[in-house]
Q: What sequence folds into this?
């Protein structure tokens, strides 16, 4: 694409992490000139999950430092930028507000355009930043608290095919680890145990496979794991290492089977659009699980669809995806004014009505 | 004082029905504390309650990651909170939870994190799984005299 080179600063503070990044795109693929994330990874293990950074004040203080660091690393000043992109939602309102205020201040002070970005759009457009996917592509977005299938047709055009009606898979892994006394975050520790176990030893349900849609449910798997654990403890008075490995293997296999089958269904719907370069992108921690990734790669392969999974550092919350999504909106001519407001809820696809027992819009959905 | 009433909920559907019967009794300013271990049915209860008072029932995803999800319902705004990841009272104030206790209907999972910030007027539901029947949950209902009157006919 013969576009003028654009350089945007992105800000992200909608949940646990505070981040700033500079992304530039001229002809060809976009370059991440810098990407700074101030997270709380050190504390993950102690608290059975991620310790939230909810204080708007803490985000505001860190944002200053992130912006300075991001500009420094990119070797640029505010004068070299074409615009400021910022996550305007969805997320924890204090954090989002801190980011939006910061972005407004910078835009006003430096005389730069302001572009508000939907956090989920940032995730959903990441495969274009990393792999140059062309619209439309199918996205399995499994990041933090959400899990959904999206057909991505344009920078502001998303169709949601389905999603989790309760827990996200990452959450199911975390809670399973908690139930089995394994360290947090649960994904890697359950996967390591599963590698030593027999996935067929314990029977786990495959929730919602009996329904033809693309919705998922993982809460029941956690409960099934709890029951199996308690039954073993009742019978033997404790859990052997082999039992624990078998439980992990059975649980992981169930998650993989459900995700694979629902992905197969989502692909069928997506392929009916006759995409020019069919692709499935899987973004989120789940793609780091080898068993699940392999299952999803097989599904894509069988459908004759390209498979990509952006690197994990660009799937967890970061500001490079916000700068990039801002860049795409900028090219569409979108600009926001000083009235840009923080939105705690902001679904990507407002067209799909809710369903009883499994509607569509959560704060982050 | 007599011990709190305990009711048996033999299935997830029974839990949902109990939640739906409680919903019409709630008004903004009410806080319902949902106690119990992982897998006890706290989120299921909250989801059923919220969806029962929505004109168009929507997704009620787990708030474990987002800490708070808020919903507009026919009973007023409902906050569905999961405090598992919280570590101190300062954070609860930052989250706006203390204000929400007065202004919204709050359903709070892992309420032990509240410590002394738990409102005295709150209704506490303690979910306990049963060792022998995997679908059965026992729910202890614990509130002041005010709640006893308001819940008359539900938790009989």
A:
């Amino acid at each position: 694409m013969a576009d003028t080179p654009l350089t945007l600063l992105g800000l992200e503070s909608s949940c646990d992490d505070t981040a700033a990044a500079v992304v530039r795109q001229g002809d060809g693929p976009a370059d991440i000139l810098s990407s700074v994330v101030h997270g709380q990874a050190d504390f993950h293990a102690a608290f059975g999950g991620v310790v939230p950074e909810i204080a708007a004040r803490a985000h505001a203080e860190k944002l200053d430092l992130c912006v300075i660091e991001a500009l420094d690393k990119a070797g640029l000043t505010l004068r070299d930028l074409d615009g400021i992109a910022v996550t305007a939602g969805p997320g924890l309102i204090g954090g989002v507000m801190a980011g939006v205020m910061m972005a407004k201040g910078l835009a006003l002070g430096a005389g730069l355009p302001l572009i508000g970005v939907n956090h989920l759009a940032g995730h959903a457009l990441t495969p274009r930043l990393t792999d140059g996917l062309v619209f439309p592509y199918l996205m399995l977005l499994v990041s933090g608290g959400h899990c959904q299938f999206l057909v991505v047709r344009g920078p502001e055009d998303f169709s949601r095919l389905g999603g989790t009606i309760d827990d996200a898979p990452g959450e199911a892994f975390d809670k399973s680890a908690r139930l089995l006394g394994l360290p947090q975050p649960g994904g890697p520790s359950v996967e390591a145990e599963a590698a030593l176990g027999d996935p067929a030893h314990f029977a786990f349900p495959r929730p919602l496979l009996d329904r033809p849609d693309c919705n998922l449910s993982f809460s029941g798997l956690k409960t099934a794991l709890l029951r199996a654990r308690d039954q073993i403890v009742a019978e033997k008075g404790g859990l052997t290492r082999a039992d624990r490995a078998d439980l992990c293997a059975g649980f992981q296999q169930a998650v993989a089977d459900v995700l694979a089958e629902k992905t197969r269904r989502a692909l069928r719907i997506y392929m009916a659009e006759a995409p020019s370069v069919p692709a499935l992108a899987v973004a989120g921690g789940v793609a780091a699980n080898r068993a699940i990734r392999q299952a999803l790669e097989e599904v894509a392969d069988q459908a004759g669809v390209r498979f990509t999974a952006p690197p994990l550092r660009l799937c967890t919350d970061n500001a490079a995806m916000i700068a990039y999504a801002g860049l795409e909106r900028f090219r569409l001519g979108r600009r926001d004014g000083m009235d840009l407001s923080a939105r705690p809820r902001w679904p990507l696809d407002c067209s799909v009505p809710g369903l009883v027992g499994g509607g569509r819009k959560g704060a982050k959905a | 004082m007599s011990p709190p009433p305990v009711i048996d909920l033999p299935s997830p559907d029974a839990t949902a029905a109990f939640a739906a019967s409680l919903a019409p009794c709630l008004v903004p300013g009410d806080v319902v504390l949902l106690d119990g271990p992982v897998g006890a049915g706290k989120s299921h209860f909250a989801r059923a309650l919220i969806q029962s008072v929505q004109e168009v029932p929507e997704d009620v995803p787990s708030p474990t990651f987002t800490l708070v999800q808020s919903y507009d319902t026919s009973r007023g705004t409902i906050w569905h909170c999961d405090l598992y990841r919280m570590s101190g009272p300062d954070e609860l104030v930052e989250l706006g939870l203390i204000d929400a206790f007065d202004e919204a209907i709050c359903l709070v999972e892992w309420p032990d994190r509240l410590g002394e910030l738990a409102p005295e007027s709150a209704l506490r539901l303690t979910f306990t799984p049963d060792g022998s029947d995997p679908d059965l949950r026992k729910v202890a209902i614990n509130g002041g005299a005010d709640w006893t009157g308001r819940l008359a006919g539900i938790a009989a």
